[in-house]
Write a structure and sequence with these properties.
Shape: globular
Distance between the termini: 40 Å
Order of helices and strands: HEEEEHHEHEEEEHEEHEEEHEEEHHE
Structural class: alpha+beta
Strand content: 25-35%
Length: 333
């Protein structure tokens, strides 16, 4: 039995002693979240054999984070996984509290509540019979256990059950931190077009990522791309919104092309905040000067804040970023 497994069993033993039992005490739609953190960083493969090895219900502390609802521990071929099942509206409160700052304008909080709920339900409908419905990291949307906040709770309560639909169908409500002045077309990020996701101009000067600069050593780029002797890194093509689409990589052994999205993923999201950048070389560094943070599709969180401060309500904000959509009440299954 490995150390992590023994430690996890110890955690659950302690939890079972100090836990305050509180079953899911009101009828509502639940959602199952795969917990992603430094220790449990893996995602189950599609056909991986997985077996439940433990379960706890209530309020408990796991690795410094409070969770409520049901916690299940699973053992698969590639390691251990933890899932947390809890009421959807509680989950939305916890997501909004970490996706944006609770002290933001109330209308921005409400807009985030609606899209976080919509995104979560969309993922649940697509993963109804899976081990989990949604992951707790930027793979889907951030979730760090219980994060109670009065303002966030009010925003979620005032929009309780509201989701975005298009043609009476739940939408895939993509969103991101900072667009850098204009949102991106989904086809250039996800390879698919959506009638309710169009590129729009969205000032987001309030964001700390309105403009940024990163100096990355060439050796770090070589290591990330698994190449040697990088001679030149240049932009090969742009998307319609003038984000970088592809780059040309020149080494001693020849040329290759890499997608900007893949470069960002390889270097790390924070190291390369967006694909809206220009590059130059200074000595042993490649200098990236850019705008925005995230993939750029859908609602821009800092843009939504700016709209809220200008007096727009959450319905106007959502209509701007998701044109043609309608707010409806979801029906619990």
């Amino acid at each position: 039995m490995n150390k992590i497994f023994r430690k996890l069993l110890h955690i659950f033993f302690i939890a079972s002693v100090v836990i305050f039992i509180c079953p899911l005490c009101y009828a509502s739609e639940n959602i199952k979240v795969l917990i992603i953190n430094e220790i449990f960083s893996g995602i189950p493969e599609k056909h991986e054999k997985i077996q439940k090895i433990g379960s706890v219900k209530g309020n408990l502390l796991v690795m410094g984070i409070h969770y409520s609802g049901n916690i299940d521990v699973w053992k698969g071929d590639n390691g251990l996984y933890i899932t947390n099942e809890l009421p959807l509206e509680d989950y939305v409160k916890d997501v909004v509290a970490v996706e944006i700052r609770p002290d933001w304008e109330m209308e921005a909080l409400k807009a985030q509540a609606v899209i976080s709920r919509t995104y979560a339900l969309f993922q649940k409908r697509n993963n109804e019979n899976a081990l989990y419905h949604i992951a707790s990291s930027v793979i889907d949307q951030l979730y760090e256990g219980n994060n109670p906040d009065i303002r966030v709770s009010n925003a979620v309560e005032e929009t309780k059950g509201e989701i975005l639909t298009f043609g009476n169908i739940l939408i895939e409500a993509f969103y991101h931190s900072t667009c850098g002045g204009k949102t991106e077309n989904p086809a250039d990020v996800f390879g698919k077009s959506y009638p309710y996701l169009k590129s729009v101009e969205s000032p987001c000067d309030l964001s700390p990522y309105a403009e940024w600069e990163r100096n990355i050593e060439i050796k770090d780029i070589e290591e990330a791309l698994n190449i040697t002797r990088l001679q030149e890194l240049s932009i090969k093509s742009y998307t319609k919104t003038q984000r970088v689409k592809q780059l040309d990589v020149k080494t001693n052994s020849g040329h290759t092309t890499i997608n900007a999205i893949d470069l960002r993923k390889t270097l790390g999201w924070k190291n390369l905040p967006s694909t809206n950048f220009r590059i130059s070389r200074v000595g042993n560094f490649i200098v990236f000067k850019g705008k925005g943070y995230g993939h750029g599709v859908g609602l821009c969180q800092w843009g939504a804040l700016q709209m809220a401060r200008e007096g727009k309500n959450y319905k106007e904000i959502l209509a701007f970023y998701y044109p043609g959509t309608v707010i409806q009440q979801y029906e619990s299954r």
